[in-house]
């Protein structure tokens, strides 16, 4: 690990007898409670004839001192001290905390703005929205957060590349300076364009104007974001006049991503990987790739972080920042219905399941959804089976349907087809 991610208050006084200003000691339960909520100051525990007391040292001096027995101390625990401070500097936030994108505006303008005002980075859920809707979100968020502590989701769109190209164009035109790049299986010209079009030469260095937070769950994809942009995409971007020659040269000196979110088992699209295994693997990978380079991509983690304990655990394991998703869906500001919020509030750990994804249905992709109180997973699975059966059992299909079938449904069949169906399928393909 390149730097310490947990920074505690450095020194506490020795246990034993100490002099304490009488007016600064709290004995009453409600006073103790107030003291204990001062996470950003050390709180000392005193044993006195009046019972347990707490003391928060102030800068003032007092004549009226009491001799007390110091029995313990609670170090500074401010959330703003957790994680990598470079994350906060880079994104202009108070906390090393990121609220991940949630499609169709579930991570709404209101959510992004409310969190941004509290010094927390949040990504607008642009996936699945029409361009005009995304543009109005950009305007609204930029007006409310002129300092730029917000991000927009750039979701990889393999079946409709125009969506990805269009989103990058819009983000560049509107001056969106941070994207959360997700669902990428490989780099694309669009993400390289966004990154490299924001590079500028400074005195002896490279200024990065377009920040990329890449969200990944596989090492092969992580590797691409930890390295500089590949030559072939730079060439393509130059031909298209999306970037200048100077920017193409500068690209060799920076990684594709400033931040890499390692996504463990999470709500939404997920590879169901365990956080405790995935995070150390990615930290090691980062260190191997970037050991001899003058930069270090910060590694954050998301997936299953729904409680303070889980967040603390992620920081203790070396995460530079943490990412949440599902828990934010329950906020008033989220673009979710009251009904959804109520279902989520009742959900327990085992109340989720995998179901076919609406946005990548043809590719056989599954995502994690709520099971309790909804028929969605059963219906989606049923629809998937019907679709597979229909395709397999229809013998004389029109040409365009055959092309669709061969192009889009192969993965799905490999995943869901029984051996019998697959042999039937191979007969059809060989015809
Ligand atoms: C309803 C829902 C929709 C999501 N949509 C997206 C999305 O469009 N783009 C994206 O990058 N991540 C999306 N995510 C993932 C979140 O940004 C985040 O990485 C993940 O939810 C973190 O795991 P957790 O849900 O266990 O907290 C979605 C998550 C949920 C729950």
Task: Provide keyphrases for this structure.
TIM Barrel, 431 residues, 17 helices, 18 strands, alpha/beta, single chain, 3 domains, 39% helix, globular, binds flavin mononucleotide, five-stranded antiparallel sheet
What does this protein structure show overall?
The protein is an alpha/beta fold and about 425 residues long. The chain has three domains: about 15-75, no CATH class; about 80-345, Aldolase class I (TIM Barrel); about 355-430, no CATH class. It contains 17 helices and 18 strands. It has helices at about 30-35, 85-90, 110-115, 130-145, 160-175, 190-195, 220-225, 230-240, 245-250, 275-290, 310-315, 325-330, 340-345, 375-395, 400-410, 410-415, 420-430, and strands at about 15-20, 25, 45-50, 50-55, 65-75, 95-100, 120-125, 150-155, 180, 200, 205-210, 210-215, 260-265, 270, 300, 320-325, 350-355, 365-370. It has an eight-stranded parallel beta barrel with strand order 6-7-8-9-12-13-15-16, surrounded by six helices. Strand 15 (about 300), helix 11 and strand 16 (about 320-325) form a beta-alpha-beta unit. The longest helix has 18 residues, at about 375-395. The chain is globular, with a radius of gyration of 26 Å. It starts with 15 loop residues before the first strand and ends with a helix. Mean pLDDT is about 90; it is low at about 1-10 and about 415-430. The site of flavin mononucleotide has 26 residues, from strand 8, strand 9, strand 16 and helix 12.
